[in-house]
## 1
Amino acid sequence: MAPLAFAALGSAANWRALDFSVSCMNARVIGWGLIVLTLGIWQLVALGEHPEFVLGPAEIAGDFAAALRSGELLPHVGASLLRSLPGFALGSAIGVILGLLAGVARSLDQMLSPLVFLTYPVPKIVFLPIVMLWIGIGDASKIVIIALACFYPCFINAYYGARSTPTIMVWASLNMGARRSQVFRKIVVPSALPLVFAGLRVSLALSFILLFSAEMINARSGLGFLIRQSESSLRFDLMYVSIVAVAALGYASDQLLLLARRRVLAWQEVRS
Amino acid sequence: MSVFRRLALVVAGLTLWELAARSGMWSPIILPSLARIGPEFWFLATSTASLLEVWHSLFRGLSGFALAAVVGVALGVLMGRSAVAAAFLSPIFSGTYPIPKIALFPIFVYLFGIGSLAKVVLVFLECLYPIVVTTHAGSRAVNRVLLWSAANMGASRGRILARVVVPAAAPFIFAGFRMALPIAMIVVIITEMISSADGLGYLVMYSLASFRTDRMLAAVVAISLLGLMLDRLVVILRDRLVFWERLESYYAE
């Protein structure tokens, strides 16, 4: 690694070429190496003298298996997913559809866009207490607040995706006698899709943030609740287990979305 | 979007709210009238005690954001312009990007205490990602002719970074700032709602728990205005500093 490092530092003109070859070949290896190294150091630290709330990776893995067997974990995973998935689906579907339509229809654009762009920088979590007040403390209020947060990135990205449709393609298809609905389905939607997926990815991440914070604030089930409860009852094993479960859930759903994007956007060169 | 249309929107929304509140269909706890929220908001915006709450939230959000901005821009530029840094850092960032960092908050509370530090660290961590990602993209997209001519004219590597790469990536960097700032506010409010004894998020939960929904809504309005103002501030700063280029996305508009 060292000679390569100096070569990269030394030559100004070849930065980009070098950059590309190195990151393609070795990124995965180095990434895994770093993860293993971190876990190793963590494990070593955990072997020595340490406070009660620090657990080593091996210990956490054991606790994870134990929690899976004892059934302490899975019901909460289910409860969390039952809140986040409907919220994400609802909010992002409405966001994408309205965003695409506002991108092509001027009347809808003038009606909706000022409202959306004005309220976009407002942290949506502040509406959780209001929503709780209006529709109760149960799952519905959490689903509504997750849907609300997911709506915005989807709307904004779909809106810009639809607006950045190449005009020439629209002209060409109109010229060849396509109807407006056909132009929308065959030209606008496909050319907006890369940005739509970008919006969906942001919304997915947001849905998890809101899910866990809503569950930490008030809930009787779910991973956020489990983290809080095990923390306050000094069950550090369960706390780490649920944090690992949260991380795994976030990671898995993101990978699923990326997989879907690769399938749907197979015709497009996808760049991260 | 004209200023007039935004104003009309706000006025229409307020009128609708007041009509609903006065219709008598809902209890004033569920839907307090503006006549009660207004004075609460005025109290919030003028009394020293409540301005201190605003300051707590603002301080946590902005210090975490500022740290993330400094570290994020440095890491992003490094990753964009150095093969070695990219090979080491980009797997870490792309691997941990989809993990909801908010779940780490209880650990941070144990590590850094229940005060501001745990919150600032979480804000830092959540803001770091969008800033690093956009800065990385921006510093990779620098026109290589500019780099060549700077190197040709004898600029040192540090000088090229400071005078060519960072300005060229500035539109991207500000797009990242504009993504990160609302996240900073979200995280501050969330962590104050979960565990705190001060700040606006705490004020919201405390007012709700004591059935002072008028005060809660005043705090919600204050948080919303704060979010809007910070976003405007970034836009104004961006327009002053990066006047030569616009990207095509909301974050750059």
## 2
Amino acid sequence: MSDILKIEDLVIQYDTDSGCVHALNGLSLTLREGETLGLVGETGAGKTTLARSIMGLIQCPPGKIVSGKILYRGEDLLTMKEKHRQSIRGKEISMIFQDPMTSLNPVTTVGDQIAEAVMAHEKIGKKQAWEKALEMLETVGISRERASDYPHQFSGGMKQRVIIAIALVLNPKILLADEPTTALDVTIQVQVLDTIQALRKKLDMSMILITHDLGIVAQTCEQVAIIYGGEVVEYADVFTIFENRMHPYTQGLFNSIPKLNEDVNRLVPIEGLMPDPTNLPTGCKFCTRCQHATDRCREEHPEMIDVGNGHLVRCFRAENTNAGGEQK
Amino acid sequence: MFRLILKRLLLLIPVLIGVTFLVFAILSLAPGDPVLVVLGDNATEEAAEAMRSELGLDKPFLERYVNYIWDLLHGDFGKSYKTKLSVSDQILSRFPNTILLALSSMLIALLFGIPLGILSAKKQYTLLDNVASVGGLISVSMPNFWLGLLLVILFALKLRWLPSQGMSEGTGPMLKSLILPAVTLGTGIMATIMRMTRSSVLETMRQDYVSTARAKGISESQVTTGHMLKNALIPIITSAGLQFGHLLGGSMLTETVFSWPGVGRYMLDAIKTKDTPAVLGSVILMSVSFSVVNLLVDILYAFVDPRIKSQYKKHGKKSALRAKKQEA
């Protein structure tokens, strides 16, 4: 499988009144063709910033892309002309947003909103664009008669289906799904996820699925990247993450899931809070909450360490586990 | 929708009764005798007495009021004390001039106010935005009659480009004499509409559906007009409608400064001479046009926002008003 999207050392900051927010701090990530990559992390870890930067939706100001590259099939999205980027946005790379209740324009029919995406990229008339929109609506499980309805006439799950239809109507190569089910009921979550999965296979897309639900990761993803403080702290295939996770933060995440086969009175959270993004620690970003933290962790910033089989960990403790592994 | 219109028109009846009673009472209680104003201070007691009984002014207040309303129900607005001309004829002959002035100043206000408001929202905190804000503040704070006089000094007296007073005969000269009063009236309204547009667009700019629209890869101007402005329209329509209602009642100051033969000036002259039937006629016209414009604005909401339309359909007026309040 070849790399379709490669993010290198991406640094993004927001200038706010309370100081400079370090949202992404040298984040690197690779998405291979046809693969589903899960992006897991707490609120404020930088997941949404990452997705929006790939789409080119970071508001500047206050946002600022300080350095780094986002390579789509070898072309850097960050340096290309706006016109060219616009032709990729929505056509080659699409995004599904977090909150279906607010992500649709309330004063335009859903059919128009889907057809608009078609007409932005294909030189066809309104009628043909509508026909395409109607087909897409049916694909996501909404009958074509409802195309001339307005968003307020749909339920949350159906709205999310409409948003999926907008994102997928042009068969994009990459789909960025930013917590597509967080705002939905559990029963609806399954339906929406199934829809996304089925379409992903049918259209042969690559997908980055942003979530903080590890259950969804286990169900849908092949590769997983754990994000903390604006950088990837652990990257591996989904089996390794579930069976042989190494970063203390990843371990903490899994420990905080209540186990079904044990009597659990209290959840086990990760102690402490996310560090203030305007004032991140100099060493390991997780050192303030890590029970294994040493002086070295507090002063020196750990690099990604390959512990074999493409399993990358950003922790000094991994050096010992992997005597022969090279630093990456 | 039809029921809504009917209800609103019926509501006009108590409004008119209240308004006419108030004006009637104020004019009766205010010092000064209309008969002496008409006849002059040197009039003999007999002549004054004769005129009083002729105009029915010797009768008690309530009787006069009831008589007036009775005549009004028969379509008779009475005759002016001073000129003995029919009030309805006088007002109807002036009303088209007032409408013309109102429409043209509204046109100026909308034509400049909305684009400037959008521009200043999109370039928030830049030089352009600051200049527009300060300019808007100045335009709003400047009294109409003063701005009118300044414009007269510059364009009529110094440059001699435009006539300073009155309404000229013939289409060309008439339009020329319309420019100064229309600009005078339009400037303040333009500033109000500009501020309203700016804040409303700023509000919609941060909405999720704007991100969805951008993610489709449509151009920024399509995002602005199709998604931001369309959603920002409701408050703009509300404020423009209120302003237009005021304008239709005649703008006393501007019409006086420019000797524009409109309803506003007629009413001011009538107030000065305590010409009760003339004042009442103008006030009734003012209230009716104000209410009708507001009704039109409410109907317009339904065309702009499908959520309001469905409210109108479902429960009629009450819930529609509630929806409007929530919008505001």
